[in-house]
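Teaching soon. Got one?

===
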Amino acid sequence: MGFKILATAAMISALFAVNASAQTRIACVGNSITYGYGLNGATTYPQHLQYVLGGTYQVENYGNSGKMFHKASQESYWTQPEFKKAYAFEPNIVIIELGTNDSKYFFSGSEGNYNYYFYEYKQDSQGKNYTRESLIAEMKKDYEALIDTFLHNNHTPEIYVTLQPYANNLGWFITDSAIVNVINPMIKEVAEKKRVNVIDLHSLLNKREWLQADSVHPNEEGAKAMAEIIGESIMNGPIMTGPLESSSSVITESSSSNTALASSSSDGKDGLTTVLRTNSQITVQGKSIQLNHISGTVEVFDLNGNLVKRSVSNGFLELQMKLPGVYIVKTNLTTQKVILK
């Protein structure tokens, strides 16, 4: 993490002017943290992410300030043009960074909990008054539906969801306690159910000097750090949530790794992270993929789900690839993403 961003937007376009059809398309879906609120022309996290990943990727910013994943909200991301544009982009990878504004429902202010915008609609889709429990249940369904919507896209993209980073601004009805105790456990639960990748920004984007004065939005250094955290997760392969069926899986404890799946407990107390990963025996050497101590059928797919190679390994296998790019290698023990440059 320590490189300096010097290029302008024009230089970005020139540097990454490669054949669009050969690029891996990434849609950054989110709220003002993704959009770049308060940066005033400085580089946003999606722009930094473009630098981190390089010219074989095309990163687009579909952030919209103030938006929520809750469908019934007057500030729902579902109704915004950015949502339609992100879907029409037909991304290979989708990064969903939403939830900070949804935490406003659980602000404990003078009017009690879940009061934000509820003066405009006090009833749910069934015509019943919301309770805390019914609201949370409905929000979980909406977050799951958001993931499903992108998964049903033509390219069946890989999904990364973020646990929301620290944010605390009472004037905006945003409290970190609501993020830790309600929103992030909700996101993690849905991610485990859908078996999508989780990036814990709450644990990893953890320096106060990375925040603007509003204690919600990253400054330019924070946006760069956020991009590096997300970029490293993408380049180092998907993080498996939920139980693994492979006997070769390992359990690691960590509280700082940029590629770890970290979480806060439901009571809001941060603890050590349990990371479930496949025990990778797959490496890249130049334009070849090497498999060690793996026997059986080996399949290689591109990010569109197309089978590129199929072979059988008797313990060691080297697969020569014609083109650089991002591939998914599947064996009877593990599934791993590899990047050939």
About this structure: Helices lie at 9-15, 32-35, 45-53, 81-88, 132-151, 176-194, 201-204, 220-235. The first strand starts at residue 24 and ends at 30. The first helix runs from residue 9 to 15. The two ends are 20 Å apart (CA to CA).
